[in-house]
Amino acid sequence: MKRSIITLSSSAIRSQKSDFMFVSVRQISNGGKRSKKKIYHRDYQLDKVMDLQKKPSLILQLKSIIQSQNQQRLLLRDLEKEVGFVAKWNFMSIIEKYPSIFRVGGGCGKEFPFVTLTGKAEKVAREEGEARNLMEPILVRNLRKLLMLSIDCRVPLEKVEFIGDELGLPHDFKKSLIFKYPEYFSIKVINGRAYLNLENWDSSLAVTAREERFARERMLQSAGGQNKVRITKDGNYLGPFAFKMCYAAGFRPNKSYLEELEKWQKMEFPSPYLNARRFEVADPKNRKRVVAVLHELLSLTMEKRMISAKLDAFHSEYRLPSKLVLCLIKHHGIFYITNKGARSTVFLKEAYDGTNLVDKCPILMFNDKFVALSGRHVTL
């Protein structure tokens, strides 16, 4: 009996000298066949996104820490308590490097040194409240869709908290969103576990980001007078069941690959908003539906990306495949896994143009404006 084991080579993933990563495929049998390797092409632009976010994230985190203090100032001696001994030095570097955002005062007489926001930074920071107000209906809509995607229209509350940063939820979201909209949400304890529960189903929300994109493209095509629909050399196909393909620059699909991809692009599949219990796991249409579920989950996040461990936490709620990484690798025209940064991250490739996130929500636009005070053009 043969067993196939597919693993990502971590050393290859972290290599900066190669244009691709190797996926090792080992066939174990009585004959002991030699290992084979498949190529998983790197996307340097998406890798770069992870590097570009490092300093902006420190700036924004320090801003939040300062704003949480009673007098909107943080004693430098207390910085270690807030961020830890090791991270403290990264923040000290940020304070020193960006005097246009952070002002250091005190240190004379009995007054201990402290850091606060500059007047210009405070002025921009006051705009965050308006951005949060604009975000509220977006967050309510996305939370409802998140619950509608699940098999029982409910998700354990700790899992919602687990991906709260990716969704853009405020830290007090239970009070500011859940309890504020009882017509949409409730918290119920089932077998000793708290769940966020959907109160009312809304069919108008059961439309995926993929379907919305197809509707826009179909309108553009009609306006341009193009009626012929065909697969292109980059794997894209304008059809109601097709996904946007964004292959890495080094990937060159051959004719047979494109033929198989065309069949897959044309294959009908049930909506990810239909209950997964209704479909056979082994059915090819259901396997394509799983891709749609992953696509929609990432579309609900602010930055259209999620740490892979967090995505992996929703197996039971969304009936995700047990070998989730293999599914993501197989559909590398849609998703990209990067190991840049502390943890591996899954990107929705179509959401990015190079290193730039195409559509930004109000809070991300505010973040960009605040970080721009540093004098650096950054992509969050």
UniProtKB/TrEMBL annotation:
InterPro entries: PORR_domain, PORR_fam. It holds the Pfam family PORR. One of its GO terms (molecular function) is RNA binding. Residues 41-375 form the PORR domain. Transmembrane segments: none annotated. PANTHER family: PROTEIN WHAT'S THIS FACTOR 1 HOMOLOG, CHLOROPLASTIC, UBIQUITIN CARBOXYL-TERMINAL HYDROLASE FAMILY PROTEIN. This is PORR domain-containing protein. The lineage of its organism: Eukaryota, Viridiplantae, Streptophyta, Embryophyta, Tracheophyta.
